[in-house]
Write a structure and sequence with these properties.
six-stranded mixed sheet, 18% strand, alpha+beta
Length: 256
């Protein structure tokens, strides 16, 4: 059953509380990642950021066939790519880790976005999905990218972020995908269940090191007004170090 989920968009002091961290320019890990995947050769020199996102998403989507239970020993992009070269296949998580790393290596700010169902605390399996959101400077907005499916959801030719996608499906708006593999007819029905809770890291730098904490928090979770704040995932995985908010402007901060 589809439902309207509501967030606040008030300008409050909360907006200045947690500012995300991103990779610095000429980050050595990202330079190495570009060399490992060689994606620069796939992208025409006159491509804009959205065109680059389409090309790289399609590239990552086709690196391996989805395996929903296999997890790598190391969860950074280069290590995953090395495992894939050996024949390993991975989950939505790893598609998103690799895509997120590649986009940041190309100078496109992006982050990993964890989606959770409304009943994520009590559901035993399949209560979450992992995608990427990238910031388009020319449109001054965040857009959702699902590399497992090779889908970038759009409405009226405008790429959507995850909350916009939830609202568009709820309001029965026409949803299209501007990805290079536009074959995913059942995607809209499948993804909707996961568009309730939204979580991102505060420290979004792509590396092997431990992420920094801010006042003890590592992540921000966007929670609908009136909804329960989840503290456990799939009955047994604690959700710790999370700053809960209803504030869309905090979650979808505009970047300079």
């Amino acid at each position: 059953m589809k439902e309207n989920i509501i967030f606040t968009e008030d300008q409050t002091e909360e907006l200045n509380k947690y500012k995300p961290l991103w990779n610095i320019e000429h980050d050595q890990y990202l330079i190495r990642l570009l060399s490992e995947c060689n994606i620069n050769k796939l992208i025409p020199s006159n491509s804009n950021d959205f065109e680059k996102i389409q090309i790289v998403t399609n590239y990552v989507h086709n690196l391996w066939k989805h395996n929903g239970v296999n997890a790598p020993e190391k969860n950074d992009p280069i290590s995953i790519l090395q495992d894939v070269k050996k024949g390993d296949k991975f989950r939505c998580v790893e598609y998103s880790i690799v895509l997120n790393g590649c986009l940041n290596a190309l100078g496109i700010i992006s982050r990993i976005l964890s989606l959770k169902t409304k009943n994520c605390e009590t559901k035993r399996y399949g209560a979450g999905h992992v995608v990427v959101e990238a910031y388009l400077k020319d449109k001054e907005k965040w857009v959702m990218i699902d590399p497992q499916w090779d889908v970038i959801p759009m409405s009226n030719e405008i790429p959507l972020n995850a909350v916009e996608l939830q609202r568009a499906i709820t309001d029965k708006k026409q949803i299209t995908s501007n990805s290079l593999s536009n074959r995913k007819r059942r995607y809209k029905k499948w993804i909707y269940q996961y568009l309730y809770y939204f979580t991102v890291n505060i420290d979004n730098r792509v590396s092997l090191k431990e992420a920094e904490t801010f006042d003890g928090f590592k992540q921000i979770m966007l929670v609908p007004i009136g909804a329960k704040e989840p503290t456990i995932f799939q009955r047994k995985y604690p959700l710790n170090n999370i700053y809960y908010t209803n504030n869309l402007q905090l979650f979808y901060r505009q970047l300079n």
